[in-house]
Amino acid sequence: MEPILTVDNLKTAFLTSSGKVQAVRGVSFSLNKGEIVGIVGESGSGKSVTSMSILRLLPDTARIDPESSILFEGRDLSRLPKKQLRDIRGQKIAMIFQDPMSSLNPLIPVGNQVEEMIKIHHRELSGEELRKRALALFQDVRIPEPEKRFAQYPHQFSGGMRQRVMIAMALANRPDLLIADEPTTALDVTIQDQILKQLRALQREWNTAIIFITHDLGVVAELCQRVLVMYGGLIMEESPIDDLFERPRHPYTLGLLRSIPALNQDKGARLDSIPGSPPDMTNPPAGCPFAPRCPYARQICARELPPYAAVGEGHRSMCWLLQPDAPAEGNPFREEEAR
Length: 339
Ligand SMILES: Nc1ncnc2c1ncn2[C@@H]1O[C@H](COP(=O)(O)OP(=O)(O)OP(=O)(O)O)[C@@H](O)[C@H]1O
Ligand code: SF4
Ligand SMILES: [Mg+2]
Hints:
Helix 4 (about 110-120) packs across helix 5 (about 125-140), helix 4 runs parallel beside helix 7 and helix 5 (about 125-140) packs across helix 7 (about 160-170). Helices cover about 35% and strands about 25% of the residues. It has an eight-stranded mixed sheet with strand order 7-8-9-3-10-11-13-12, sandwiched between helices. The chain is an alpha/beta fold. The termini are far apart. It has two domains: about 1-90 and about 175-260, P-loop containing nucleotide triphosphate hydrolases (Rossmann fold, 3-Layer(aba) Sandwich), CATH 3.40.50.300; about 100-170, no CATH class. A hairpin with a 2-residue loop joins strand 5 and strand 6 (about 75). The protein binds adenosine-5'-triphosphate (ATP), iron/sulfur cluster (SF4) and magnesium ion. Iron/sulfur cluster binds near residues 251, 291 and 306.
């Protein structure tokens, strides 16, 4: 299979008054044409910064390490001049976010906003053709009564309908890659299901590759073929979807799986959220970022970052427990507690 996107050793930091925030610290992965990959992980793990780095939608304080590369259809986006990057944005790569209201102009009818999106890359189209295409997109994303809805303003739409408008705009130019950053987090479950259905249809009909970012492993299980589990600015585990649920090979993934309600069949069972809090990214730990919260941590975990171990077809995990030669002396964090 041909990769459409190959991210290699992505490191993104922010220069702030309280120091350098090392948000993404060496992320590598690739994505095939038409593939849906999920990125999961707790708040602050670097999911959004990873995806924003791909399109360089970052504030001026952000720095992408010169050794990182982001190959998209053969071009390195991390080095591409701004003008060429703008041509790729919206046309070949589109993005949808959690809060559609912030990306829609409240003063312009939604239909016109969709038309504008098409126009950016199709200046040649007449007003009538633009309207036709925009209406077709409304139908594609199953907005009922598209003609009537076309002339309405964002505030006249519900959250779910607004998200559909955002998807219609993202699809306006049939992108090869869609990055969806928690697009369903603010929506109720029924609407969420409909949006997921939409995305699946898009992938099937147009072979669009999708990066789907979420906190919700249940959604990932439904939608994605592969998943990246992030923590502390790094990919802790990467796996085909079934293998992740059947054979999770990282203590952090285990912790996440235990915290999903749908998978905890026993209704009476109390869900375990992972105790402790994520690392301070201005001063990330030298070793495994999960070590202070990991029940299996050893001395070496606090000192050194583990290498990846290949644990199956397309499945890798960054944990010292998978390194047969790693020294096994006790858990430094537990000893600290005992003192
Ligand atoms: N503009 C910024 N300036 C400084 N630090 C930032 C900035 N944006 C993000 N960060 C930091 O980068 C780290 C990664 O943030 P990111 O937004 O990628 O997390 P996330 O995994 O998307 O979390 P969430 O699930 O809450 O969306 C966090 O420590 C965050 O505080
Ligand atoms: S490397 Fe050590 S601390 Fe990190 S997840 Fe594995 S056992 Fe836990
Ligand atoms: Mg985020």
